Amino acid sequence: MTVFKTSMRNFFAHKGRMALSAVAVLLSVAFVCGTLVFTDTMNTTFDKLFATTSPDVTVSPKGAEADDTPQNGRPESMPASAVERAGKAAGAKSAEGAVSSMNVTVVNSDNKNMGSSTGAPTIAGNWTKNDLRSMEITSGHAPRGPTEVMVDADTADKHHLKMGDELRTIAVTGDFKAKIVGIATFKITNPGAAVVYYDTATAQRELLGATGRFTHINVTAATGVTDAQLKQNVSKQLTAADGTFKIQTQKEYSDESREGIGEFMNVIKYAMLGFAGIAFLVGIFLIINTFSMLVAQRTREIGLMRAIGSSRKQVNRSVLIEALFLGVVGSILGVAAGVGIAVGLMKLMSMAGMNLSTDDLTVKATTPVIGLVLGVVVTVLAAYLPARRAGKVSPMAALRDAGTPADGKAGWIRGIIGLLLTGAGGAALYTAAGADKASDGASMLGIGVVLSLIGFVIIGPLLAGGVVRTLSAVLLRGFGPVGRLAERNALRNPRRTGATGAALMIGLALVACLSVVGSSMVASATEELDKSVGTDFIVQGNQRIVPQAQKAIEDTPGLEHVTSYKIVEAKLTSPDGKTEDTDVTAADPTYASDLRRETLSGDLAAAYGKNAMSVGSLYAEKHGVEVGDTMTVAFKGGQTAKLKVAAITNDDTALDKGSRYLNITTLKSYVPADKMPPNDMMFATAKDGQEKTAYASLKKSLDAYPQYQVRDQTDYKQQLKDQIGQLLNMVYGLLALAIVVAVLGVVNTLALSVVERTREIGLMRAIGLSRRQLRRMIRLESVVIALFGALLGLGLGMGWGATAQKLLALEGLKVLDIPWPTIIGVFIGSAFVGLFAALVPAFRAGRMNVLNAIATD
Amino acid sequence: MTSAVTIPRHGGTGERTAVAARARQVVKAYGSGETRVVALDQVDVDIARGRFTAIMGPSGSGKSTLMHCLAGLDTVSSGQIYLDETEITKLKDKKLTQLRRDRIGFIFQAFNLLPTLSALENITLPMDIAGRKPDKAWLAQVVETVGLASRLKHRPNQLSGGQQQRVAVARALAARPEIIFGDEPTGNLDSRAGAEVLGFLRRSVDELGQTIVMVTHDPVAASYADRVLYLADGRIVDEMLRPTADAVLDRMKDFDARGRTS
Which end of chain A is less congested by CB atoms within 10 angstroms, N or C? Predict the structure, then answer.
């Protein structure tokens, strides 16, 4: 009990010194809880959405995919007779046929895409009773004829659509226009899909290219009939004459719809938790430093406790109890802040165009529990080492002159362990760099990264001496005696400087590593594009290229040739009898010059001949395929073909790796026109000297189809660079949390050092150090510590990045490109971080009363 | 006996006044109203140049406060303090810091040295901070005088308490300040080491013409001074010229007795 009481008193006596550690715990816990609340809320939103939009029982044609994007661009459908029959099932209150397609683009009269910018789909369909469960018509009326359309209110708001505006729907079956006659508002949260409705006949004709057919049957149960019973009854009713069906209850259907999003949310969740973990790791350093310094400052007090009879255990426990308080306080605040972070993230998503409502805010009971347990356990574990050190304080310490706490020395055992780990890490990295298979190397890379990181953390205090001296010799020379004092202060406790720098090192190592990988990706892709791409223009979009757009491209003047490119699902059987569900690439023969591929044997041009194809070297090796062998290819939606292998392409490439080519003409003889997939991409090459005008003409041709982008090689590379840059920025943003915690660590170390050195500061002020010199001394110390961390982190990170590149060279990451501007920018930025971290401690040191400082015991 | 202004302001030394520092009607009070505590009560004092002055008095008499105010470490509630002809009670922190740096030397009871600097670096610190080059010959002489030549590279924690105080004395002397203030400089030392340090202080006055003001409660330490000022309840109540340890002790006993009977 007394132990508890002293701990409590100590905690409150030093609450100022604990504040930054508490903030570190708070931030990490908040990030974890924020992630959980955010992803849970998103899941709730989608659960509600799918639960409300799914009818009691849904009947779909067998083989229909949940996302309604079959490869030929037309949803699978079934005849109206099936709807009638389903309605007659026992327990069915009603059954209605629904038409729905996600393979559409809707544009306004300015050819602007009305779809979501966040990746949410555009859904076109007929207006059914089932839709009334989730939406209500808030103005106008439901569509009643071939020229009428209704749109959801969020889309109308976002794009300033009003009644009477004309919308054009682009489907694989053609374009058609309709005027807005109604606006329907979601009664639940719709995160972002754009939804348009037509009357049933129009939807059937324009989306399916057929009459009297439906994509789904929505069956409603009579009162007292469960979904499962109804499902059974419906399945009895439907006969084979109508086709084969997939019948799902509300739960089954919404679970299926949710699956993809659930997986995506999980990826986001674990990625964000990973970054929270890094922040925790960094926070551990901060907590260790705080407690080490508090214990050191309290050496005399602890000695007294020991002298009057406290056991080691009691002293040890008293420190741990303080850590417990810290963990509890920080975690509780962190959980609360986590909810705030989640709301902030939702606001951020809203700004990015996603529609989220705080009504759905979901805080599961497990979330605060996870936050608290994590925060407390990490804090107490981090405090364990300092607590043990406190237990070792001898009763004699009470009698000794207080002076400054003994400066920690880094021992040789630490050096050996650190060197061993770093060495092992280095060896693992070296092995990874030389690995023959990326998968083997990846685990080696992981081991190498972890070991070298731990190694660096351990030898950090030993490196601190040399690195700080070198940095000081270069940077602090100009600052005279103040610079020297700063250097000495940074060196006086290498363990503390090491731990403070290590915290910063972790975040910056990851930044450096990722920047090296990212810029190597850009450089490698650019090199590969320069080497192998022969075409001038590339057309791509988030909808397969509909025939009307294809025609617009082909009709563009100034083009020497245009190449179609389709990926077709197929079952592939090699001569060794092995069958694989995979795909083949059907293209025009001009593709061979649009993208130059190295052939290991045979002739790629011959692969575009009738009933011929090529395979990649990886596949050929795996199945022992040689030129002249015959492959059996069962095209999806078509017949089975026997194709002769005419070429084997080298798969040591990043573009079209593993692709198996055949001529579109060959494909056409096995797949009927209505099952033919639209082009995935198209390539165009300008007539000599007409590149500029052709590019402009192509863009103009695609004006009416904003879902497709045409890019020349320069723009394509730029886009690639931008995409990678965006991804990196996002990751840097998440790493910023770890760096913020590390900066708090620097502030913490300095602030506690200033307290610890109160007498020294008083002495220096007494003998004439001006406030400005004093502040500068503390700032310089901070800068040196920050640069020490940055130097270690950047070095380590570049090592990791270079290893990753060597490893991924097998996957096409052939060029190592070190982004020096970024690296140097980060290094210089770290100096400013150091300056910033020293602001408050320096200010407080400057304000210290000289007399009090001298008098401090 | 409330005034210790007994030495004429202008002596026979010519250019410089014979008074290194003086206090006029200095009041230092803490708090206000009923909790007001007066630490210095209208003190007038002149510190003679080239002399060794000791300030004595019981705990709470205000002796340390007086020294802190004279040295520009503490502010006064009213009154003026002059260092030579500079009124330091008017100075802002920046000027005051410069003044301490360039014109005053300090020796504290303990914790005089920066642990990160060697003995030599500690000695030259005030000049380093000021950006001045130390006078090599003078530095050598000071180091020689305090007997530290072989210990200059050592860090404070490698020196004994007496050696540390000698380094502090050397630091105070090295910058040739107009006046050195000592706050019980031998308080933490055994009598032999204390005698050594006091011997240096005495010699620096006699041989180098240094002005020294020292706060102490040790009659033996006070006996090294030329003049002893006695403080009680924030006032100067007595002084003694050319003191001996026994005389100082007697006088202290006297005060104690008076204190008890009053």
Answer: N
